Amino acid sequence: MVISKTMKSDEHLAKKIADKTVRIGIIGLGYVGLPLAVLFAKKGFKVSGFIRDRKKIGLIKQGKSYITDPFVDEFLPHVVKKGMLCAFSTEDRTALGSCDVYIICVPTPVAPDKTPDITAFRSVARLLASLDLTGKLIINESTVAPGMTRDVFGTLGGTYFLVCSPERVDPGNDSKSTEVIPKVMGGRDKESLSLGSLLYSQVLKGTLVAVSTLESAELTKMLENTYRAVNIALSNEFALLAEKMGIDIVEVINAAKTKWSYQAHYPSIGVGGHCIPVDPYYIVQYANTHGVDLPVVFESLKQNEDMPRHLAEKVTSNYKKGNSVVVYGITYKKNVGDMRESPVVEFCHSLSSANIPFSVYDPYVPDEELTKLSLKKGRLSIVDILIVGTDHDTLKDDYKKLIGEHTLVVDGRNFFPKKVGRAVIGVGRMFV
Ligand code: SAJ
User: Fold this and answer.
1) How many C-beta atoms lie closer than 10 Å to residue 223's C-beta?
2) Residue 275 catalytic?
3) What does pLDDT average to over the chain?
């Protein structure tokens, strides 16, 4: 990216970025921030990572990861040992003040009533507002509704640059590391956008997609994740119809996939994670505050949220007193250890409410996490009812130890392509 001569006020920062003497501060070291911190450090930048959890600071100092990410597993020990990545408490004002660039990667969840909760997002703004930000660059990667970056980070005092570049991490997908994913970004002004582009171009191989404003970047992320939530809901709705008609919905989806303009989404026990079931509530609230209703979005969210109950009904209607019941997999999607917003946790609550005793087996979840949720740890032995909560790859081997001729399988992920055990009741399909 050529730095044009008119950019007097940011030439100094541009030069530090170009010669990698800039100090990068990444605030929030979770599924988004930690891979990004390792990537910048691996590419030769000095990175300070900021996180509240002192235990995690200690783990990083030992070069140990606490997320499921093969790239971090491989390179974190190296960059920490070389002193290219150091972890600090968010309270460490000296370390914070020594950075030239701040990349915000804090969670933006919803409250139990589904209203956006930007407490962590706002607390970062308060931290930065206490510093001298002159000539510095703030980049927001956290997912927020249009206008929130400008509202919360636009008036912190001093002359600084501001960019919004929403994260697009896909946990558990090794083929889509942070380095290769196309990067959308919008700047408060052209100088900010140029600095953001220059910085990311130093570490990313994916396309840099510049948009005209901060709000365009925010709405881009909202659209792409809401699109996914709505299309999953469409598949769930068609699955309910297919169940009534005795049609195999997976066969139908795979046939539809042969059409160029159809992108396949699959029905399941539900939609979890910190993105897809959450982000659309930000845009629903934003639209409503601007007098616009989004009924398709809102109804889709409700459809997805009803799937755990729908699956639980398949168990309660087949359960006989004394049946042994195991839920295989409780995380929100396969091959990750994350239980945030997991529909399987919701499903387990429904079983408990129906007084059905069950245990949970998930190779990605430590026993203490199950204990925290008052869930009984299951074993790999033949059961009367097996529920597929999460279709971890490990199920390919484990199922043989769980399913006997009499076992009923309630397959929340349509993992099984044909009958096993006594019968398989899937989501929009059944094998008897
Ligand atoms: N799910 C379905 N049916 C589908 C796809 C997903 O029920 O056809 C469920 C999953 O089991 C999971 C939830 O929806 O519970 C979310 O699935 P996901 O694959 O979208 O998982 P995430 O949350 O890790 O999504 C991430 C997101 N990345 C970011 O927000 C930055 C999302 O934008 C991506 O679309 C997604 O990765 C991806 O493309 O894989």
Assistant:
1) 13
2) yes
3) 95
